[in-house]
Amino acid sequence: MNAASRSRRTSPRAGARPCPCGLPAAYGECCGRFHAGQAAPTAEALMRSRFAAFAVEDEAYLLRTWHPTTRPARVGFERGMRWTGLEIEDVSGGSPFHTDGTVTFRARYAHGGQPGELHERSRFTRHEGAWVYLDAVFTN
Ligand SMILES: [Zn+2]
């Protein structure tokens, strides 16, 4: 990411806009605080914050919340891809008292103006105490 796009994304008003994850909260009080360094307390919170990180193209956050055994060298953001909505369908485990969890969700996007949807079950586990993304089962 170049310096110009970085400064545009971190304008003073960035924290006040609605969170991309779909919860009725401002970005700064919702997923933005996880992107800023606070630990996500549940697998669902981590899932939402990772979706939001794709939406705001926060590669560093995506990489540090990815299990080291499955983490890619880098995250590519496709040009013309815009994440537009997230719907959590099912959660199992993943609470502050669990060490594993799965989250099934639908993520909506527009790619070059064409709407699309990703339906996926993601697996989460803990690494050094913090929730991390392990891998995904594509359900369609
Ligand atoms: Zn959020």
TrEMBL record:
Name of one Pfam family that matches: YchJ_M-like
Q: Quote the InterPro entries the UniProt record gives.
A: NTF2-like_dom_sf, YchJ-like, YchJ-like_M
By what name is this protein known?
A: UPF0225 protein F4562_001207
| Domain spans labelled YchJ-like middle NTF2-like | 42-136
Q: Which family does it belong to?
A: Belongs to the UPF0225 family.
Membrane-crossing ranges are none
